[in-house]
Amino acid sequence: MAANYQDFQAHFQILAKKRPELIVNTLSNIFTMRLVGNKTHGDMAEIGLTEFIHQFMYNYDCLHVGKERFRAKTHEEDIVIKDELSNSSFPVSIKAYGDGPLQLSTDKEAKMFPELEQRGKDISDLEGIAKIFSSDAFKGLSQINVLPLIYKEKKLECNIMVFDFEKMVRDTRRILYVPKDYHYNTETQTLSESYTRKHPIYLFLDEHGRYICEVRYGGPEANALQRGLWTHTQYAYSYFKSLTNGWISYEHNDALVKLFRLALNATAQGHHAANTILQEDIDRFFSTSH
Q: Which range is least confidently modeled, 5-14, 115-124, 187-196, 244-253?
């Protein structure tokens, strides 16, 4: 992980601790978008966090590059964050997922799974594991800056959790092939039949056989959900750092849904007027001492 992204995380964590109402408000509005559509909140997370950084993190600015208008991607980024003090920029991929499976990399070139296939089906020697992480398919892990927004919808709780790739590399002691229609039992450390899996995976396990992450099938039949590097937040919680200092409660904002309904039918003149009012509200909100 790049040093400038680590510095950003530290600043974000401090802000979330000193002014928790700021991030709670923004996350509440982002996850309110699930009332509009199940996938809407992901796009809103990208533009919402872009504006959060712009408005509230004085030494950073941010540009949303996730959509065609600004498309100039070199990595898997959705936003590009600029450190105003060092004048350096770094890309970040925003993920908005429920508490469970989380995609860390789409592996668009489908290199990871084939790399593991040629190494064997049960890799436990440290030299072999080191060669995997230094291979062309995996060496890019250190350049992946993922910012996951994780939510528990029934409990109305959310968390911004960053996966520790360096710890994953340090702790991996076994890489195990799991065929389709099979499941790995972490308690018995054995495979058993499970007819819910349609494609094979490779599991990354620690010295005690505990789950860290997985690489999903990368063949020509694989779609985006069946490919790439994944983890499971419930099973690999110790590999995450919370930028919100733990789980926080959020509320749905019904007024925001109505605002979108009106905005989509209003004119640009009305939008300009509303933008002025909203900016005044943000300035007032940020300047209020608590």
A: 187-196
Other CB atoms closer than 10 Å to residue 153's CB: what's the count?
11
Helix/strand/coil percentages in the chain, nearest 5: 40, 25, 35
- Count, in order, helices (H) and strands (E) of the chain: 8, 15
List Cα–Cα distances, 94 to 68, 177, 228, 239, in angstroms. Answer: 16, 29, 16, 18
Q: Is 73 helix (H, G, I), strand (E, B) or coil?
A: coil
Gap between the Cα atoms of 20 and 249, Å rounded: 11
**Tokens 């997370």 appear where?**
45
Mean per-residue pLDDT over the chain, rounded: 91
What is the C-alpha separation between 150 and 31, in angstroms, rounded? 10
DSSP-H helix ranges across the chain: 3-18, 20-32, 40-56, 112-117, 126-133, 165-171, 254-263, 268-287
Backbone torsions φ then ψ of 108, nearest 5 degrees = -60, -30
The predicted-structure confidence for 50-98, as pLDDT tens digits, reads as follows 999 999 999 999 999 876 554 444 556 899 999 999 999 999 999 999 9
Closest by CA to 80, choosing from 110, 123, 50, is 50
What is the Cα–Cα distance from 63 to 70, expressed in whole angstroms? 9
Residue ranges per domain, the chain? Answer: 3-252
User: Token pair of 16, please?
Assistant: 């979330």
| List of residues 6+ apart from 42 with CB closer than 8 A | 94, 95, 96
- The pLDDT of 236-263, averaged and rounded, is 96
Which residues on neighbouring strands pair with residue 103, listed in sequence order? Answer: 230
**One-letter-per-residue 3-state SS of 245-266:** CCCEECCCCHHHHHHHHHHCCC
